[in-house]
């Protein structure tokens, strides 16, 4: 059998393919070699725990404004603008009066109708009872006449005449009793009708009273001078024109501007060590160049989400401000606070960017030979861009700052 010898052209092509493959492998390895991954050598050192939090200014004391009345519903017809200045007695919220006015008109009409029915019943019953009284009196007189002239003497009158006289007396007595009883029944019926009409009148009076109370509650006025801060619901929305509210629904407040506080929210992961008395500084959004010294006054006992449906949780904290400026500081202004949660003397800390999520675990990539190996770590307190590592690393370890 004759051997097949590759031609020079074929050898050239094969050599080219092998060379290209080798170049591709070299290029791939070069792109992922450890020298191209930014690294950091882990060192022990002090860890200054400063945490940033956002929030708003609020008054320490404020007068709440709500819909008044009891078991009532209202529709907002007009409401003052958020932040508007008001004087004592100024209207802050005015409710739509149309339904209340209609209810008042219906109540007054019902009351007038009930009054006319009472007059009519009194007149008709009075006439009927008067007629029945005359009938009873006429029957009584007939009875007296029958008794006076009753034929009783058998020597003067026949037996037939005597029996007829007795019958006349009985008939007169029955007519008198019937007239008297009918009059009594008609009087009772008249009293019952008047009682029912009185109930109708009282029901109409209750409608009128309720409507007048609502009329008196259709305006919410400022109890003292100040600015209006509209209440916000869980979505951050304020009361709107056309919205239906009920008695006691919070609408706004008029804060005491002499003392403002900052209400801020700290991520649950950053809140370790957050407690009353910790120092802070606050920057009001409208005055970014003028930080205000502050101190933590109160911390919520439980963390909770700020936005419904978003599982991220925050601790609310109230900060007392070291300086008050009513001219430039207003409730509702956004603030950024820097909270000083203390200093750790000697800990291992790494940049947040060096910590990754792998199979539900926190890992860092530690240099091992020519590459990197994932190492599970336990994290402690965190601060700006850094986090303490309590287990998994040792001083001197070299870790990747990006995912290798």
Primary descriptors:
alpha+beta; 3 helices; 3 domains; Elongation Factor Tu (Ef-tu), domain 3; 4-stranded antiparallel beta sheet; OB fold (Dihydrolipoamide Acetyltransferase, E2P); rod-shaped; 404 residues
Description:
Helix content is 33%, strand content 34%. The protein is an alpha+beta fold. It has 3 domains: 175 residues, Elongation Factor Tu (Ef-tu), domain 3, CATH 2.40.30.170; 70 residues, Beta Barrel (OB fold (Dihydrolipoamide Acetyltransferase, E2P)); 119 residues. The protein has a 6-stranded antiparallel beta barrel. The protein has a 4-stranded antiparallel sheet with strand order 7-6-4-10, with no helix packed on it. A 3-stranded antiparallel sheet has the order 3-11-9, with no helix packed on it. A hairpin with a 2-residue loop joins strand 21 and strand 22. The chain starts with 7 loop residues before the first helix and ends with a strand.
């Amino acid at each position: 059998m004759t051997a097949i010898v590759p031609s020079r052209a074929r050898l050239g092509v094969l050599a080219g393919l092998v060379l290209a493959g080798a170049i591709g492998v070299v290029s791939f390895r070069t792109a992922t070699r450890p020298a191209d991954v930014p690294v950091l050598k882990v060192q022990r050192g002090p860890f200054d725990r400063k945490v940033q939090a956002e929030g708003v200014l609020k008054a320490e004391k404020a007068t709440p404004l709500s819909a008044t009345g009891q078991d009532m519903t209202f529709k907002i017809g007009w409401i003052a603008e958020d932040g508007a200045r008001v004087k004592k007695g100024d209207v802050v919220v005015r409710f739509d009066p149309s339904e209340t006015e209609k209810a008042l008109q219906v109540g007054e009409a019902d009351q007038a109708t009930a009054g006319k029915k009472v007059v009519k019943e009194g007149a008709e019953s009075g006439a009927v009872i008067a007629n029945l009284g005359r009938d009873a009196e006429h029957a009584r007189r007939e009875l007296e006449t029958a008794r006076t002239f009753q034929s009783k003497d058998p020597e003067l009158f026949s037996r037939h005449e005597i029996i007829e006289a007795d019958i006349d007396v009985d008939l007169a007595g029955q007519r008198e009793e019937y007239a008297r009883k009918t009059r009594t029944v008609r009087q009772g019926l008249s009293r019952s009708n008047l009682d029912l009409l009185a109930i109708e009148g009282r029901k109409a009076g209750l409608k009128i009273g309720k409507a007048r109370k609502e009329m008196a509650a259709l305006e919410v006025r400022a109890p003292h001078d100040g600015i209006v801060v509209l209440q916000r619901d869980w979505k951050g929305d304020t009361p709107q024109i056309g919205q239906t509210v009920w008695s006691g629904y919070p609408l706004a407040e008029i804060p005491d501007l002499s003392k403002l506080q900052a209400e801020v929210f700290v991520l649950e992961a950053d809140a370790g060590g957050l407690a009353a008395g910790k120092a802070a500084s606050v920057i009001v959004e409208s005055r970014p160049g003028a930080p205000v010294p502050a101190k933590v006054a109160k911390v919520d006992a439980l963390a909770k989400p700020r936005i419904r449906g978003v599982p991220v949780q925050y601790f609310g904290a109230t900060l007392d401000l070291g300086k008050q400026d009513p001219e430039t500081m207003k409730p509702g202004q956004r603030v950024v606070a820097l909270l000083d949660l203390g200093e750790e003397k000697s800990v291992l800390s790494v940049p947040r960017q060096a910590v990754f999520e792998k199979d539900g675990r926190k890992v860092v990539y530690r240099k091992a030979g020519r590459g990197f190996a994932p190492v599970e770590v336990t994290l402690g307190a965190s601060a700006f861009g850094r986090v303490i590592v309590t287990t998994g690393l040792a001083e001197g370890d070299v870790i990747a700052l990006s995912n290798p």
